[in-house]
Amino acid sequence: MHSFPGVVAVGYINEAIDERDPLKTLDSLLLPTARIKDVDPDSAQHYQDVLYQAKTQKFMDPQSASKILWLDEIQHAVNEANKDMDKAKHWVTLVVDVNEFLEKEKQSDILSVLKSAVGNTNDVMPECADRYYDTLAKAKEQKSKSVSTEGSWLKLNLQEKYDYYYNIDSKESSWVTPESCLLKESWLMGKEIEAFWKGHKQRASYMHRRQMFIDNIPSVVKIQSWFRMVTARKNYLSRLKYFRDHNNEIVKIQSLLRANKARDDYKTLVGSENPPLTVIRKFVHLLDQSDLDFQEALEVARLREEVVTKIRGNQQLEKDLNLMDIKIGLLVKNRITLEDVISHRTKLNKKKGGEMQILNNTDNQGIKSLSKERRKTLETYQQLFYLLQTNPLYLAKLIFQMPQNKSTKFMDTVIFTLYNYASNQREEYLLLKLFKTALEEEIKSKVDQVQDIVTGNPTVIKMVVSFNRGARGQNTLRQLLAPVVKEIIDDKSLIINTSPVEVYKAWVNQLETQTGEASNLPYDVTTEQALTYPEVKNKLEASIENLRRVTDKVLSSIISSLDLLPYGLRYIAKVLKNSIREKFPDATEDELLKIVGNLLYYRYMNPAIVAPDGFDIIDMTAGGQINSDQRRNLGSVAKVLQHAASNKLFEGENEHLSSMNNYLSETYQEFRKYFKEACNVPEPEEKFNMDKYTDVVTVSKPVIYISIEEIISTHSLLLEHQDAIAPEKNDLLNELLELLGEVPNVESFLGEGAVDPSDPDKVNTLSQLAKTEISLFLTSKYDIGDGEAIDGQSLMIKTKKLIIDVIRNQPGSTLSEILETPASTKQEIDHAADMVSRAVLDSRTPEDMKHSQSMVEDAQLPLEQKKRKIQRNLRTLEQTGHVSSKNKYQDILNEIAKDIRNQRIHRQLRKAELEKLQQTLNALNKKAAFYEEQINYYDTYIKTCLDNLKRKNTRRSIKLDGKGEPKGTKRVKPVRYTAAKLHEKGVLLGIDDLQINQFKNVTFDISSTEDVGIFDVRSKFLGVEMEKVQLNIQDLLQMQYEGVAVMKMFDKVKVNVNLLIYLLNKKFYGK
Question: Which residues form the WW domain (predicted)?
Answer without folding.
Answer: 147-180
